[in-house]
Structure prediction request, 460 residues.
Amino acid sequence: EIVYRENTAQYGILQNGVTESGTVEFGVTSQVYDLDLSTEDDDDDDGDDDEEEDYLKVEEVYVAVGQRISEGDPVYKFTQSSIDKVRKTLTYAKTEAQIALNEAQTQYDVGVLTAGLSYDETMLASSLAEQSYNNTIAQLSNDLAAKTLEIEQLLADIYDIQCSLVDDDYRDQRDDLKEAYEDAIEDVEDASEEYVTNRITAAQAFRTAKESYENFLEQFDESNEEIQDKIDQVYEIQEEILYTQQLMQKDILEASQTYESDTLSGSIAQNTYDSSLTGYESSLKKAKEELDDASQLLSDFEEFIGDGTIYAQGSGLITEVGFSEDEYLETAGVLISYATSDAMTVSVDVSEEDVVTMKVGDSVTLAFTAYEDETYEGIIQSITTTATSRGTATVSYPVVISIQGDTSRLYEGMTADVTFITEATNAEVIYVPRKAIVEENGKYYMYKKEQDAYVLSPIE
Prediction:
């Protein structure tokens, strides 16, 4: 019995190609949360759950894995209480950094003055030979001693004032007044509108706390002004000392025999002066950097939090949701990850015989098992030059195809048949499968169906 397989002749552009199978892969983009809200106080946690309120808390999650989103869609919403708490903490940290910078600046100014005075005294002592200034020292020593004593007293006063501004009692007083002031503000805001007595009591407490806090800040400013006044006095007295010292310069020529030792003493004095300032400069630089960091963190937080809702920065298919409702953002991490429609690819292995006919940018046709009778267009994105099967009978090379057009119905892992066109006719023709051709005596035939019979007909 002879069995025939029927095919219908086709008409059009005849294409010859290579078909390979592969799976859809996503190009994933992540939207991350990278703010570090940890502070030094976090190391002293006593296990109180209230400490978690120093971090943002998720109130609502608007997306889920597998959902398609568009740029600008809401992703997360945070609780207002956690936003206020973080903002308050960061603002307080910035204020603390500003106070620390002011203190470091004062210490630097005093340190420069002290080191400068020490340097000048050392240079004076090393630049004058003992024989040349003995008589002058005898005449001016009382004046210099008095002025030096006055400078030392001023420096001692400055030091005492500075110490009073940085001791624990002063800090505790400042924190207590500030906390009382903030509590009074909350009490005024929480005072019931229906109870006049409560509002009056809260208002009176607010005024008292405000006056105490403002008086404290005014005293702080007055202390800094007093420090500056004393620094100015020290400069004035130092100028008087320098004038007195200038009277002694005439004896320098008589000490030429000690020039080398004087030069060495001056070099040592300069090194001592530079070394003294290095510590103050380092502290000042560190305080400035901490203030810059605190200011930047507050600015970054405000930019990130916006109106309290985080929105998608791009469009695609959600592949990961990093946080859930009621969760705190205690560490940096991925908010969402999504596969963008313009980054879907299919990877296939192509034999060495066929890969030589291909190049990056060539068009291909894709057919997906999930969607029969539908085709997609693709473009060769890359061809790897390293073989994937060396040492075996078959050598192939990985080829990555970028899927074009609407990919909204595609999912990662879908099976795709990729057809690479290697040859095509320039005009439309009638064509049949190669296996339908029969060769006899150097001529070519094919069976044509005529009614219920199959007739062997020559091909013209």
Observations:
- The longest strand covers residues 415-431.
- The first helix runs from residue 80 to 127.
